[in-house]
């Protein structure tokens, strides 16, 4: 009976998948258009563009640089040392592009989320992405994700929503942009030695 | 459709079609609140170890800021380890492992127990000041718990930290207890190697005692070693295997990084594995270098080798491994640096 259930579940699953899967425009990767659409909605209505798409000055004031959509901190923008803030409630500063952030953690830079293999998420798997968000560690095993990435909020999304976001990110234009590595704080925060 | 299981009962069982699509529930077990309840000691007051708990020592230990370490494994009676995949053993349900960390005195003991197929309980226990008790640590661990050097405090890991290294794909979670690590042909130059005492078991003992099944016979006749032209290279590769290969291998989630530092006794050849590292451009850029001039390892040039750079830092945003230590392993760093600078510069190592 268990074997019958397994076979039935496989056949039903295959039928759904075949109905749902299509190819990207490049023909390189299968995508589920339903997931992509959902992912586009989540990315467009959520906070992703706030940090991962650089701001530029347009004719009507600050606007998102959609030619570098979700490509992170521009590699050509070399940041000077962050300003030192006096003791008090003001504790962080950020670049005009909203892609470089300085605080007690040092300096963090918004990453390139486009599917570029060298500089973006091109060689990441869905599991790498989901586990990054779920654990707060890069690829689920690496260094901790730094502020201001709100992974502690996004990690509450369902698996399907996180997979949708990743599916959408696989379809956006590739932008080759090598984001710098985080800069260590001059004096480590009290809980980091 | 996946539905979060509870022990014994799921919605899947109530819906015939959905039931066919649901996973079977996995049993879970809440860890014991005290180390004394896990079965390590027959007499907790005297710290006498329960007979049947086997002591062992991997030939390439993981660097843990110089902690003194002791390890034990319990294998259920009449059950064997399946060594069909010689690099990834499958342990019987009921297997338990303990690893005690000391900095002059006992500080913590980590615990693994296999409770079902593919399901392990993780726990860490922190010792009190007079080592009269060791209690379960919260899931998020206890950061900065114990001073191990002036201004440096040891983090006791929580379950989340343990899983970051131990959980993989298609394999059991045990690291450090396998054919290579328990080989009786131990590397005399392994950094941080611990002395072997008579009560410690090795691969040969496990085979004689019938605790390992399906181990290819050649590994019984010839104890596994890391193939290398020079002793220093063997030690360097062994160190990287133990300290990096748990994540950087060809099967785990980080296989997508494409950097293999886990030495396989079967499967991909060592030379093919080394090609993923030596002379391979690094996505991680050493900040002091020009863009796109960093390599994972560049033969003859440790300053352009990101492995050296990241091994030499204990800043959390930069260090490798990314967690678990706060002090640079200077001895190993010197070994790896010399290996890259001198041994790899010669063609003989590049051909390995």
Describe the structure.
The complex is a heterodimer of chains A (193) and B (352). Helix content of chain A is 32%, strand content 11%. Chain A is an alpha+beta fold. A three-stranded antiparallel β-sheet of chain A has the order 5-6-7, with no helix packed on it. A two-stranded antiparallel sheet of chain A has the order 1-2. A two-stranded antiparallel sheet of chain A has the order 3-4. In chain A, α4 crosses α6. The longest helix of chain A has 19 residues, at 2-20. Chain B is α+β, with helices and mostly antiparallel strands and 352 residues long. Chain B folds into two domains: 35-221, no CATH class; 231-350, no CATH class. A seven-stranded mixed β-sheet of chain B has the order 9-8-7-6-4-3-12. The interface between A and B is large, with 38 and 34 residues.
| Average pLDDT taken over every residue of chain A | 87
Q: Roughly how many Å is the radius of gyration of chain A? A: 20 Å
Instruction: Write down how many β-strands of chain B occur, each being a DSSP E stretch of 2 or more residues.
Output: 13
Question: H/E series of chain B, N to C?
Answer: HEEEEEEEEEEEHEHEHHHHHH
Quaternary assembly: heterodimer
How are the strands ordered across the major sheet of chain A?
5-6-7
Structural class of chain B comes to: alpha+beta
Please tally the β strands of chain A and state the result.
7
Helix content range of chain B: 10-25%
The helix content of chain A is: 25-40%
Please indicate the percent range of residues of chain B in DSSP E strands (runs of 2 or more).
Answer: 15-25%
Task: Give the overall pLDDT of chain B as a whole number.
Answer: 89
């Amino acid at each position: 009976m268990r074997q019958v259930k397994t076979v039935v579940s496989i056949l039903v699953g295959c039928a759904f998948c075949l109905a749902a899967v299509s190819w990207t425009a490049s023909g390189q990767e299968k995508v589920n258009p339903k997931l992509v659409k959902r992912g586009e909605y989540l990315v467009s209505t959520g906070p992703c563009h706030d940090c991962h798409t650089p701001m530029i000055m347009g004719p009507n004031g600050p606007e998102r640089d959609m030619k570098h959509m979700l490509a992170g901190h521009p590699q050509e923008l070399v940041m000077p040392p962050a300003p030192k803030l006096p003791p008090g409630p003001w504790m962080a500063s950020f670049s005009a592009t909203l892609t470089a952030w300085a605080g007690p953690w040092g300096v963090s830079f918004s990453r390139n989320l486009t599917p570029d293999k060298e500089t973006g998420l091109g060689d990441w798997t869905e599991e790498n992405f989901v586990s990054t968000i779920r654990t707060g560690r890069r690829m689920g095993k690496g260094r901790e994700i730094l502020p201001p990435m709100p992974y502690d909020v996004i990690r509450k999304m369902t698996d399907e929503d996180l997979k949708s976001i990743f599916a959408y990110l696989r379809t956006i234009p590739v932008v080759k942009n090598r984001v710098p590595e985080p800069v260590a704080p001059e004096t480590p925060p009290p809980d980091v030695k | 459709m996946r539905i979060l299981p509870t022990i014994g009962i799921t919605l899947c069982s109530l819906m015939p079609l959905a039931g066919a699509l649901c996973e079977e529930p996995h049993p879970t077990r809440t860890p014991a609140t005290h180390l004394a309840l896990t079965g390590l000691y027959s007499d907790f007051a005297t710290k006498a170890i329960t007979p049947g708990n086997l002591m062992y020592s991997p030939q390439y230990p993981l660097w843990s800021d110089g902690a003194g370490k002791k390890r034990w494994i319990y294998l259920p009676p009449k059950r064997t380890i399946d060594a069909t995949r010689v690099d990834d053993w499958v342990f019987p349900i009921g297997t338990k492992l303990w690893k005690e960390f000391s900095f002059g005195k006992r500080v913590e003991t980590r615990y693994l127990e296999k409770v079902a197929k593919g399901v392990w309980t993780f726990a860490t226990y922190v010792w009190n000041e007079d080592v009269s008790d060791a209690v379960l640590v919260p899931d998020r661990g206890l950061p900065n718990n114990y001073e191990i050097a002036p201004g440096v405090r040891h983090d006791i890991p929580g379950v989340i930290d343990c899983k970051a290294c131990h959980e993989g794909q298609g394999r059991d979670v045990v690291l450090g207890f396998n054919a290579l690590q328990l080989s009786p042909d131990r590397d005399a130059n392994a950094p941080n190697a611990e002395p072997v005492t008579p009560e410690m078991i090795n691969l040969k003992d496990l085979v004689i005692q019938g605790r390992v099944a399906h181990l290819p016979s050649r590994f019984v006749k010839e104890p596994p070693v890391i193939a290398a032209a020079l002793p220093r290279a063997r030690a360097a590769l062994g160190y990287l295997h133990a300290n990096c290969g748990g994540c950087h291998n060809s099967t785990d989630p980080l296989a997508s990084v494409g950097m293999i530092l886990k030495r396989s006794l079967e499967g991909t050849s060592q030379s093919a594995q080394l090609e993923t590292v030596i002379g391979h451009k690094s996505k991680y850029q050493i900040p002091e270098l020009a863009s796109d001039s960093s390599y994972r390892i560049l033969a003859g040039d440790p300053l352009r080798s990101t492995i050296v750079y990241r091994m030499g830092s204990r800043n959390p945003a930069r260090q490798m491994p990314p967690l678990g230590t706060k002090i640079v392993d200077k001895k190993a760093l010197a070994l790896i640096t010399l290996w890259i600078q001198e041994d790899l510069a010669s063609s003989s190592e590049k051909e390995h």
